[in-house]
Amino acid sequence: MWFLAWENSVRRKGQSVLTMAITGLTVLTFVLTFSVLFTLQEGLKLSNDRLGADIIVLPNKSNADAFQTIFTAEPVNIYMNQEVAREIGQVKGIEQLTSQFFTQTLDQSCCSIGGATRLVGYDPATDFILEPWLSEHNLKALADDQVIIGGNIPAFLGNQASVLGGVFTVAGSLYPTGSGMDETIFININVARELAQDSPYLQGLWKKEAPEKLISAVLIKTSTGYDPVQVAEDINSLELAVEAVATSEMVSAMRTQLLMVTRLILGLWLALFFVACLALIGRFSALVRERKKEIGLLRAIGVQRTEVFKLILLEAWLLAGAGGAAGSIAGVLGVNSILTALRSSLGLPMGQWSWSSALGSGLLGIFVALFLGFIASVYPAWKSSRLDPQEAIARGEVD
């Protein structure tokens, strides 16, 4: 039966190619939309789980916002006096608080890192963001000549990195978070301040105040039972010229927006799936009409109705499976380009697009193709199995 289905598919090349094209395009759009939306959802989940801070506090006069600071790796040279952290620490509901100092590598030949990359100085005495990773690797704190790089920064040759003229040992790479941390370099806060102060390219930033008295952000972990949104409002009410934002509120808002986009895209894809079903039902119904005499001959020589039913289904699955495989491969190859474009243009958090993700999406695409082939062929297959052999031979044509 498989051989007969294969021969019938090969014999009608034009019709087979058209059927595979309809299935392939349907599966291509499914794999692209499913993979991109799934990766975006995964990025939001990673960000929510691994950011570590419930609240982020930034200078409210800076051009950067909390979204840019958390979800993109764009260098942001924003500063406020370090005394702000002490005053924020008086607010009720704060369990842990740590300060960070932002600077950047330069797009200069002296640096081993291509382009301008965010460099974050962390405070080992109060840090709780890197602490889980350091504990897992049996490190108490980074030495002054060590750095930790984000999960998306490629490994350095010889485990050494040149940053703003200084040579550092790469202690390790962080786990992916789906946030700007993935493309950030972490270093001791005092070392970061010294590098920034000594860099001739950043001197314009220190005209008003020296970097040793400045911080860029305060990250806060709230106590159990306290609402981060309320604690952030309490901080904003201090009139310290800062802006406190609850990260959960930001992630929740993004998740709501993404859910609306997902529903819209899913609705459009279901409409495309419905149109493809109608088109393929028409294709297989026409195929059955053209092969009435052939089916009548099969029935006349003793082929059972169930075998005829299976034959039409097998032909549909062969064509749908081939089209689905081609659509899945094309979709999987195109996902990374779309994710890169979305990340660079919108700065959205992204999950990891790995080989296992690609394999899962590809297999799901083939399953969708086989399901589409089944729906489109089940009625024509049932109708062909009900044909009377004598009538089919008398009124049909053999192709």
From TrEMBL:
Pfam families per record: FtsX
Localisation per UniProt entry: Cell membrane
Entry keywords, A to Z: Cell membrane, Membrane, Transmembrane, Transmembrane helix
Domain ABC3 transporter permease C-terminal: 271-382
GO molecular function: transmembrane transporter activity
UniProt topology in membrane: Multi-pass membrane protein
TM spans (from-to): 20-40, 264-284, 316-342, 363-382
Record bears the keyword Acyltransferase: no
Keyword match Transcription regulation: no
GO cellular component: plasma membrane
Family: Belongs to the ABC-4 integral membrane protein family.
Name of the molecule in the record: ABC3 transporter permease C-terminal domain-containing protein
The organism of origin for this protein: Desulfitobacterium hafniense (strain Y51)
